[in-house]
Amino acid sequence: MCVMALNDAELLNCCLNYHKPYVDDIIVLDGGSRDKTVEVAKRHGARVVQRAFSGSFAKDKNHLMSLAETAWVLFVDCDEIMDWNFLNNMREYIKEESKVRLKGVVAFKFTRLNLDEPGTWPDYQIRLFRKDQCEWMGRVHEVVVDKRSGKPIDSSDLNPVRSQTLDAHPILHLPRPSARTRETQERWKRLLREET
Known about the structure:
Blueprint: E1 2-5, H1 9-19, E2 27-30, H2 37-43, E3 47-50, H3 57-66, E4 72-74, E5 80-81, H4 84-94, H5 99-102, E6 107-114, E7 123-130, E8 134-137, E9 143-146, E10 163-165, E11 171-173, H6 178-195
Parallel strand pairs: 1-2, 2-3, 6-10, 6-11
Antiparallel strand pairs: 4-7, 5-11, 6-7, 8-9
Helix pairs in contact: 1-2
């Protein structure tokens, strides 16, 4: 499991405590936290990489993904909780002989329920994929793309279809403290201005 964090000690503790029983490895990329984020990650047995934010979420996530030792990578934000039923059955979905894998699926998309912004449902997110087939693209609001074509992995233009939506297994997107939300939004706005 791969997680990016910056001053997210409280949320990270909840996230890792919940997901740890279901994953083989946890890697946390810390962008220079001033709180106890690194301490929390280490306490949960995560491998911690400390690296200043590059200015591109995709670049940082691709670096984080390169450190994973598994073929399949689960990306979770600090403020997200994956559906427990999915986590209990995750290994069945990614087995080579599973029904969806036999169809060529290399990525799974989930409905994300934004608890602090209920009017924004549904918000679909790719969170589990094969790292040899997919990569992140985009500085802000990054998306998972097919490595060969560069198209979003959930694009209907790909033949065969490369992703499967798992609507029955929503992600809960937890509310962040308002000061942290403002800080994140300001960073996004700055990056978007630099992009134009």
